[in-house]
Design goal:
This protein is of the alpha+beta class. The protein has 4 helices and 5 strands. The chain has one domain (2-92).
Length: 93
């Protein structure tokens, strides 16, 4: 699974960040979290402006492991949630 971020196109506001197998599943998960069955149930004006992006964390696996060995932390903070290798392992389960 990859980590996706969905933004409102006009403002760039982050609407949802999470793990999904592909862009469609990411949009379905965001819609479900908002109370809809899937993304096709979202209002048309909202669906039109969505921007879906797969996030990359910029560090090769070896570099991330080296940082943890030395006591460092790797990952990104998105909407107040630290996303790192440990969290992603839980999300993929």
């Amino acid at each position: 699974m990859s980590v996706f971020q969905i933004r409102q196109g006009g403002t760039g506001a982050i609407l949802w960040t999470g793990a999904a197998a592909n862009e469609i599943q990411a949009m379905d998960a965001m819609a479900h979290d908002a109370g809809y069955y899937d993304h096709s149930d979202l209002p048309e004006n909202m669906r039109r402006g969505l921007k879906v992006e797969a996030l990359s964390f910029g560090a090769a696996r070896g570099q991330a492991s080296a940082g943890r060995t030395q006591g460092g932390r790797t990952g990104q903070v998105v909407m107040g949630t630290a996303i790192n290798d440990r969290n992603l392992g839980r999300a993929a389960s």
